[in-house]
Amino acid sequence: MTAEPVYIGHDDPVGRCERSGAVLVDLAPFGEPGFFEQLVVAPVEGLEVFEVRCVPLRAYGFSFGDEVGLGMTMMVERVVRRKGNRTLRVLLAPSAEHDGTAATFREEVDGRASALGLLFEWNGWGNVAINVTTEQIAPVIECIGGYVDRGLAFWEWSETVPFKPPTSPWPHVWPEAPPE
User: Fold this and answer.
1) What's the distance, CA 130 to chain centroid?
2) I need a surface site. Which of 90, 96, 109, 150 has the fewest CB within 10 A?
3) What domain of life (predicted)?
4) How open is the CA angle 74-38-30, to the nearest 5 degrees?
């Protein structure tokens, strides 16, 4: 684990509502020790089952709208119910940041995803997570295909790896008490 935990947050979660809160997913079981994704969720059943209200940027095994179960530490420990959505994640190659490809790619993805009525979230300049149903896959793949074929982008499905429970201890560090 890294010295300080690294939190991957959602700047503009697509499903934020007045009941929304945040929980953590430990990314260590997926090869990223010391990293935690902050998910936006809404309660479904008390403080035990929550609906995912963002498009997962790094976590595996669930998508927007799925229901997850929490442990005593308020970290996701299990997937309770899948709702049929899928998360397609696309990462641009580092070379795309400086040659204008990133801006063009972002415009194309924003335009195509918006036209299809898809929910999507960006993380940084070249990482997007798109919520799709089976019927919406082909037009999205068509949009990103040229970038992938030229080696400018890489993609994956969030469910290619099943969800795994946390292996890291709770990362929260309490702030020091304010001076009196």
Assistant:
1) 9
2) 150
3) Bacteria
4) 90
Cβ-Cβ contacts under 8 Å for 30 (sequence gap 6 or more): 58, 59, 60, 161, 164
pLDDT at 171: 67
Model pTM?
A: 0.87
Report helix, strand or coil for 11. Answer: coil
- 3-state SS of 82-126 is CCCCEEEEEEECHHHHCCCHHHHHHHHHHHHHHHHCCEEEECCCC
Taking the CA atoms of residue 93, residue 141, residue 39 and residue 30 in that order, the dihedral angle to the nearest 10 degrees is -60
Q: Cα–Cα distance between 86 and 133 in angstroms, integer?
A: 6
Residue with tokens 């308020």: 74
Cross-strand bridge partners of residue 22: 40
DSSP state of 178: P
Domains and CATH numbers, the chain: 6-81 (no CATH), 86-158 (3.30.70.100)
Residue pair 74/95 in contact by the 8 Å Cβ criterion? no
Residues, the chain: 180
Tens-place pLDDT, residues 88-111: 999 999 888 777 888 899 999 999
